[in-house]
Amino acid sequence: MNTITDRLNFLDNKSHDEGNMNLAVHNEGEWSGTQSNYSAFNDAGVECETGEFLYGMVRLLKPQNILETGTHWGIGASYMGMACKDNGLGHVDTYEFLSEIHQVAKRRIERLELTGEVSTHLQDVGTLTPAHQYQLMFLDTEPQTRFGELVRFFDYLAEGGFVFIHDLHRHMHQIHTEGHEFAWPYGKIPFPMQQWVQSGQLRPFHFSTPRGLTGFYKVSPDDYKWGNQA
Ligand SMILES: C[S@@+](CC[C@H](N)C(=O)[O-])C[C@H]1O[C@@H](n2cnc3c(N)ncnc32)[C@H](O)[C@@H]1O
């Protein structure tokens, strides 16, 4: 077993899922009829490499609290939960508003013996007021609601913490797409988000993954202050 993906796949397949939802690794290009250097368990969740990146982020940051919006079948939550388990600390709160889908993720988290590390909540994140600060957030509901989630949850992101938006390319979707309004499907960047980036409170960075991944670092008061030092 070489990668955390191999481990996740192995553990998930150790027992049969009653709804035939055990994991299987595919080429990421399968859904678009292409060959990709990336792999994926399905076309809705994170690519395996993005999952491995999230696993690595959690191993490195050792966050106490992680928020995921949009659980789907629990792929991202499983990678992050496995990292919490390997860290011996940390907890993932993941939110899904469709009951059947939530059940699939819940069974997976149970099968992987991650119930101590991952709470699968059946709730619309539109109604969520977080109970504490999160050191890591992963926003993965519908594209049109993810900027809004960043704005709503900004105060709950710890200083020095990271928030990632999945399926978001470096152009931030601030482009024209034929047959759609400008900035489809994300919508225009909300004013507070623009302000936080322009004032240096949030620092964006991008990864050229097949589905897109954009991160923001929330600066810490302890960070070195760059200026015109003599
Ligand atoms: C892209 S998938 C999430 C994939 C998941 N993060 C993974 O890695 O496997 C989006 C999921 O978000 C759910 N969703 C969309 N809007 C939501 C909302 N407002 N509250 C909770 N869940 C939502 C959808 O039902 C869908 O299952």
Primary descriptors:
230 residues, Rossmann fold, two-stranded antiparallel sheet, 9 strands, 21% strand, binds S-adenosylmethionine
Can you characterise this structure?
By secondary structure, this protein is an alpha/beta fold. The chain has a single domain (45-218), classed as Rossmann fold (3-Layer(aba) Sandwich). It has helices at 4-12, 48-61, 75-87, 99-111, 143-153, 191-198; strands spanning 26-27, 39-40, 65-69, 91-96, 118-122, 134-139, 157-166, 202-207, 213-218. Strand 4, helix 4 and strand 5 form a beta-alpha-beta unit. S-adenosylmethionine binds next to helix 3 and strand 4.
Produce the secondary structure layout.
Elements: H1 4-12, E1 26-27, E2 39-40, H2 48-61, E3 65-69, H3 75-87, E4 91-96, H4 99-111, E5 118-122, E6 134-139, H5 143-153, E7 157-166, H6 191-198, E8 202-207, E9 213-218
Parallel strand pairs: 3-4, 3-6, 4-5, 6-7
Antiparallel strand pairs: 1-2, 7-9, 8-9
